[in-house]
Every structure is written in structure tokens, then in C-alpha cells.
Model the fold of this input.
Amino acid sequence: MTKELDTLATALYVRIDDVLKAQPQLSPWRPKVGIAPRLSDAELVTLAVLSALLGFTSERRWLRHARVELGVMFPYLPGQSGYNRRLRNACGLVAHMIRLLAADTSLWSDDVWVADSTPVECGRSRETARRSDLAGWAEYGYCASHSRYFWGLRLHLLCTLGGLPVLFALSGAKADEREVLLGMLRAAPDVLAARPDQTIIADRQYYGRVFEGELTERELHLLRPARRGESERPGAELFKPLRQTIESINQTFKGQLDLERHGGRTRAGVIIRVLARILALTTAIWLNDKTGQPIKRSLIAYDH
Done:
């Protein structure tokens, strides 16, 4: 590993370990009587983040690599099935660490958020769509950015302009983006309570009187491009450059963190793989912020 990646792994491990000592209820459930795990929960989550940053989409390949290259840091590694099972049980801990690290950055106080969704493809054959354990949740949808249909899910993101994930959700490909965004906001009243008069910048599909009315009730200001037939809306000159900002955040997930090559075949498998990638980005931003790096969302120091 590079010195920078070693620093990130150490900092993340120490932070998770401290959190688990202070709040042991965040640890995945396990029987009180039994064999204590040789790989701690902090080590487990740190391994998942390193895997996402280094571009491993196969857990078997990742564990083979880790045994050779990371044996000093992780003297014991479980088999692939044990690793996968424990990681799926750690979803709550991973989600908690995403919020904790994000709130510990200077970007958290940004008064502008951007909202968007991006496809998370889960299969390409008709047989996969019919027989997959994801069938019923994953579905066919259309990606306007790339003018293509896909079978899978959508990752909905509410981020700061610097790309820090504030809220996120996974839904079926056809889910109404407005309803998902409102659901994310309803599920996080503590985030909104600390942010009166927050501005949300979104694309033109985030429209509607009822939708915008609920945002107004929550003291949120929506800026979006005008739809066909509408008069010019405030902030129109900002949308073109900000559209590039939103696309670059999505590209970080897809191009550098291999979001669409997650490899999940079950709901729990997809969820933890997506959460690991969100935590990987959040951890990199957190460390870049703490070390005074000029570009907070840069993964260049950690992805090799």
C-alpha cells in the first residue's frame, strides 16, 4: 500500500474502534456465548473500504490480494463466505460511520446541496431479470444521461457541492425521484433541523406544486431548470456548470469506485457493497479535509 492509503486505513480503523468502544450497541449482533471473532468489526469495515478504493469487485480476489499485501495490518482474514456474511451484518455500522465522518468535515456545513440519482445496473440478460433474487426490487428503467435502458436500481444522492454525501437511498429503477428525495428528508429530521434555509439544486424532473410545497414547508429552497412551457426560473445561469458538478460526483462513484460493478446478487449484498463505496468516498473526503488537501473529493492518493 502507499503511505497515503496506509494513513487512511489507520485513521479509519482507529475512528471506528473508538466509536465501537463508546457505543458497543453499534456492533453487529452475535451470540454472547461463542468464539470471539479474530477479525474485529473495525478491521472488517476498514477492509471493505480499502477494497472499494483499490477497485476490487470480487471478494475472493480481494481476500487473496489482502493476504499477500496486507498481512502485516490484518494478520487474520476469514474465508470469502465468512467475510461476506459478516460484512452484510455490518450494514448499520457502515451507515453510522458515513454520517459520523461526514459530519466531522468542514463540507458538512455547506448551505447548498445537489440532488440527483444514478443507475446501479444489476444484470443484462432477460434470464437474470427473471430469476435473480433482486427481481421485484430491481426493475427496468431509463437513464436519460446515457440514453439507454437498464435493469437494476437507482442510487439517490443528496450531496454538498464538494461531493460529500449527506443523504442517500437505493430504490427501484422506476421510482419517482421526487418521492425518494422527500422520503430521505423525512427520515432525517435531525439533519434538516440544523439546516434552516438550505438550498437544493436539482434537475428539471424534480418538479410539481405538491413536491415544491413540501420542500418549502421544511424551509428548503429548490433551484431547478425550467421545464418546457414554464417561464424562466431563478438561478438559470448556474445550472449548466452545476450539472457538470453533479455528473462528476456520479462519475467518481462509477469510474473510480466501480459502482455498477458491485457484484451483489441479493438485496443485502447490493446494499453493503453500495454502502462500502459511499463510506470509501466519505472517508477520503474526511481525511483530505483533515489534512488540508485542496481537492477534498480526490481519490488519486488512495486508489492504487
